Amino acid sequence: MTRRPFIAGNWKMHKGPVQADALAAELKRLLMDFTGVDLAVAPPYVSIPAVVARLKHSGIAVAGQDLHDQVQGAYTSAISGEMLVEAGCSHVIVGHSERRSLFGDTDEVVAAKLRAALRAGLSPILCVGETLAQRDAGRAHDVVTGQLALALAGLSPDQVLGITIAYEPVWAIGTGRTASPAQAQEMHATIRSWLSDRYPREVPATVRIQYGGSVKPGNARGLLSQPDIDGALVGGASLDATSFRDIVAAAG
To answer: Pick the catalytic residue: 68, 130, 168, 188?
Structure first.
């Protein structure tokens, strides 16, 4: 089965509404001809309405960068999946390494957020990945499959089919370091094999696994040409429309 490439840009804490609108307009202009690739951008919460309005009818989806596991309540500063849907989002990032390392999101918290995303009707991008210390200790595969096991526990095959998995080696995020295509492919193959051992054949054949970790125009083609790498979760390079377009071109 041929999986359609999926490239998503995570803008992190960049681009307020005015700057986000300008970037979205440029992306809309540059990406209109890439019909063979699924696209999404994840602006900060305050910029979501501007980006949703600008990207209407463009084919570029809008994602939240995170969500709370509750629908509503006394959770100051939190945003629910239902709020993201009302704002126009169709996707949400769950378990990004910065949420895990900087904000203390445990595997259990990530699992609850994943279920909240599915409850709200959002398409989750579930992030998994190991630190440099874990890789050097020979634990990379166990860490990643352990994160998957906790996040996906109890979900039906149909629910798992609605999830995109993003492998992001933590040691390659924002550091300028990138896993080699062979290193990335090895982990992506491990993830797909893990899915194969636990779900009907349709699941590993269909679920897309993105690579995230300092993806740039210069390394995108080598990464995206690997058989089990189905796209990219792009950080810094997604803040420049031309760079993001070049990464999309490498996928399409």
So the answer is: 168
